[in-house]
Automatic annotation (TrEMBL):
Subcellular location: Nucleus
Listed InterPro entries: Mediator_Med11
GO terms of biological process kind: regulation of transcription by RNA polymerase II
Organism name: Penicillium cosmopolitanum
Region (Disordered): 43-63, 92-131, 162-182
Keyword field: Activator, Nucleus, Transcription, Transcription regulation
GO cellular component: mediator complex
Gene name of the record: MED11
Taxonomic lineage of the native organism: Eukaryota, Fungi, Dikarya, Ascomycota, Pezizomycotina
Entry's family note: Belongs to the Mediator complex subunit 11 family.
Subunit architecture: Component of the Mediator complex.
The protein's name in its UniProt record: Mediator of RNA polymerase II transcription subunit 11
Length: 182
């Protein structure tokens, strides 16, 4: 009789954007709280005792640190919960798929999953979400290493050419001055 659940609340796109804006503001407060916690670990005078010109006591630093970290973790928890709600809303709207393992076209065609469909480490772990940070971090970035290898090869070639020129020059002209290389 009284056990009826209220109808689920539906949010408009404008409501979702307002919620994301509130989360964004809380992220700024989160960073501020982290800064206050770090400031409490320094010898700087805490903000609450800014009227006293002398060095702050250890107790005031502890108090400021505890307050800042409490606010930090409360905000972090709140942001986490609200972002999860936004993520669930995106999944419900079919904008973003849930994190369930499915075979992608690349693994089905024998691409990233290996020569046979469904084999290899990628297929075993399931497809990667393009928004997954661990997937992005696991990608190889060899551009810098390749460029460094090219530069070292060019430097070796340059030094070899200089050595060859100095050997050729000393054999053909015994009285000439040798070229100095910095």
């Amino acid at each position: 009789m009284a056990d009826e659940l209220p109808p689920p609340q539906t949010f408009t796109s404008a409501d979702r954007i307002r919620q994301l804006n509130d989360i964004d503001k809380d992220v700024a407060q989160l960073i501020n709280s982290a800064g206050l916690a770090i400031q409490a670990l320094t010898n700087a005078t805490p903000d609450s005792d800014s009227s006293s010109p002398g060095p702050a006591s250890l107790e005031s630093h502890k108090t400021q640190f505890k307050e800042a970290t409490s606010k930090y973790f409360a905000l972090l928890s709140s942001i986490d919960v609200r972002l999860r709600r936004q993520l669930y809303a995106l999944e419900e709207a079919s904008v973003l798929g849930p994190d369930t393992p499915q075979r992608t076209d690349a693994t089905a065609a024998g691409g990233a999953g290996g020569p046979n469909p469904g084999t290899g480490p990628v297929a075993a772990a399931g497809p990667s979400n393009p928004l997954d940070v661990s997937w992005l971090n696991s990608r190889k970035d060899t551009v810098g290493k390749d460029k460094e290898a090219e530069l070292w090869a060019a430097a070796r070639e340059f030094v070899a050419d200089l050595d060859q020129k100095s050997v050729d020059g000393s054999q053909s002209n015994g009285d000439s001055e040798k070229m100095q290389v910095d």
